[in-house]
Structures are given as C-alpha cells and as structure tokens.
Amino acid sequence: MSASTLFAAYTLLTLPVRLVTWWLWYIPRSNRPNPAWSWKTAVTLQFIATNIRYRVAMRYRTPKSLQPGADGDRFIVLNPQLTISDGLAVYKETLNSMPAIQPVPIGAVWYPITPSQTPRRLIIHFHPSAFVLFGPRSADGCGWGPTKFSELTGWPILSIQYRLSLDADKTFPAAVQDAITAYVYALETLKIPPTQIVLSGESAGGNLILAMLRYIITENQKIPLPRCAPLWSPWVDMTQKALTNIVKNRNYQSDYLEYDLGSWGTSSYIPPWLV
After folding, report:
1. Domain at 94, CATH number
2. Do 105 and 165 fall within a single domain?
3. Which keywords appear in this protein's UniProt record, sorted alphabetically (predicted)?
4. Same-domain check for residues 126 and 226
5. Which run of H or E residues covers position 260?
6. DSSP H helical ranges for 185-239
7. What's the half-sphere exposure (Cβ side, CA atoms, 13 Å) at 4?
8. Mind listing the pLDDT tens digit for each residue in 83-140?
9. How far apart are CA 114 and CA 119, in angstroms?
10. Is the peptide bond before 105 cis (omega within 30 degrees of 0)?
C-alpha cells in the first residue's frame, strides 16, 4: 500500500474524531487561534486547512470538463479568438513563447445566475488555486467570493475555469492565455466596452490578473485596459525566498495556507526555463 493511500485512509477515518475534538476544543475563546474569532470561524478554518492539506498530499486533480454538469445553463464555453480588429494577434510574444502551450476553449460559470440578456457591464473573476487546485464551479468551493461580490456591486460575474498547472502543457503561460481569452470574449463577443469590464482575482487569480495586465501594457497595447482590477490577497511573490518566509509569518499557525501548497504551486506553474 502506497504512502498516499495510507495518508488518505488516515485522514478520512480520523476526520469525524477530529471534527468532534475541534467542536469541543474551540468552545472556550482562549483556545481559538484568535480569541476574537467566533467558534464557527475557528472550526471552519481547521476543516479548510485539513481539506487543503489532504489535497496537497494526494496531489489531487480538480476535474476539468467543458460539460455543464450541475451548473446547467450557468456554465458556458469560451473559444479563443486568435485575432481582433485589423487582424491584431491576440496571443503573441510571451503568450506564444512555448509551442506546446496554445490557447484552448475554456469553461466559465455565471454568478449568481445566468443573465437574461447580454450584460452591459461585467466582472470577470479568477478563483484562488495556487495554480493547482479548485475551479469556478459551485462544487469547487470557490463560489462564495463571486456571489458576494455580485451582491455588493449589482454586476453579473463570469468566473473563469482557467487551466491548472498539473501537466507539462499547462504551465505558464497557459493560465494567462485563458485570462486573455476570457477578456477578449467580453470585448469581442459580448461587445462590452472595456470601461464596463472589471477584472477580479483571488490569490493566484490576482497573480494571473497582474500577469495579464502586464502583457497588455508591455506586449499588446492595442488590447484596451479594463475599468479596474480589484485583487483579493493576490499572490505576488512566487520566489523560493518568499516561500521560506511563509513559515516565519506571525500568523502562520492560524493560517490555512501552508508551505507545501505554495511549493507545489510554484514548482508546477513556473516552467524550468523561467527558474
């Protein structure tokens, strides 16, 4: 029996016991990672941390499909558009630097519901992932952010199923290609003015937006910039030094993001020629 199988069995078999332990242990505020946290927050974060730790140890592969599944008509497929007005190439230079990595059709999910007509304004959202986990679907566990953001703004949100770096042909710049595919879809297919498009990204999704904007500004200026780009705890430093410093952070023991997740993400996303 492999080590990963043993770890999976251990995690699943002991989870009920650990849940009960957390429920009881965190009743006194003094036992919570932060006394200001509610009991629910303390227990939930322990569960999330265990979930992520399990996925990292198992090198879990989030299912990716272009079929709607449980999301029904909220799920759509975006096809890459290689050129826009005047024959301008959409993907060039850095985004065309690796022959094995080419633009592909990608999925996306509307939040909170599918618009009844073509929207006049839009938020394009990129979920957190460390470039190796999760997705935009309701079942992927990343729907709270876009749902809440839509409630606060009143704008429809399209959350993007960008490629995760789990294979050699899905490392950088695959996810950036997908980000451009989504933005060009909004500009060219939905015909939404760039002044009415907002880019939103959490964690690795924030990193993705920064890379996308840098590409537009430095290598493809004829693609217009969006209205704005709010970033939610963006992952801006993927160096080994930054990874090492994670464990030195004063909040490390109460955080659910650990060194192993960052290490897996950076080693998967960054191709050897960029190291």
Report:
1. 3.40.50.1820
2. yes
3. Hydrolase, Membrane, Transmembrane, Transmembrane helix
4. yes
5. helix 259-269
6. 204-219
7. 7
8. 987 778 999 999 999 999 999 999 999 999 999 999 999 999 999 999 999 999 999 9
9. 10
10. no
| Residue 106 · residue 161 · CB < 8 Å | yes
Residue 50 lies in a domain: yes
Is residue 224 in a domain? yes
Cβ–Cβ under 8 Å, residues 123 and 156: yes
Which residues touch 124 (CB under 8 Å, ≥6 apart)? 157, 158, 160, 182, 183, 186, 197, 198, 199, 200
What pLDDT band is residue 257 in, cutting at 50, 70 and 90? Answer: confident
Contact assessment for residue 175 and residue 134, using Cβ atoms and an 8 Å cutoff: no
Decide if 237 is inside a domain: no
Provide, rounded to the nearest whole percent, the portion of the chain with pLDDT above 70.
99
Q: Tally the residues of the chain.
A: 275
The per-type count for the chain, helices as H runs and strands as E runs, is 7, 8
Question: What is the spatial distance between Cα 273 and Cα 275, in angstroms, rounded to a whole number?
Answer: 6
- Side chain identity at 33, as an amino acid letter? P
Q: What is the dihedral of CA 84, 88, 91, 96, to 10 degrees?
A: 150
Residues 73 and 55 in one domain: no
Range of the domain at 55: 3-62+253-274
Q: State the amino acid at position 113 in one-letter form.
A: I
What Å distances lie between residue 95 and 129, 174, 205, 231, CA to CA?
A: 20, 8, 17, 22
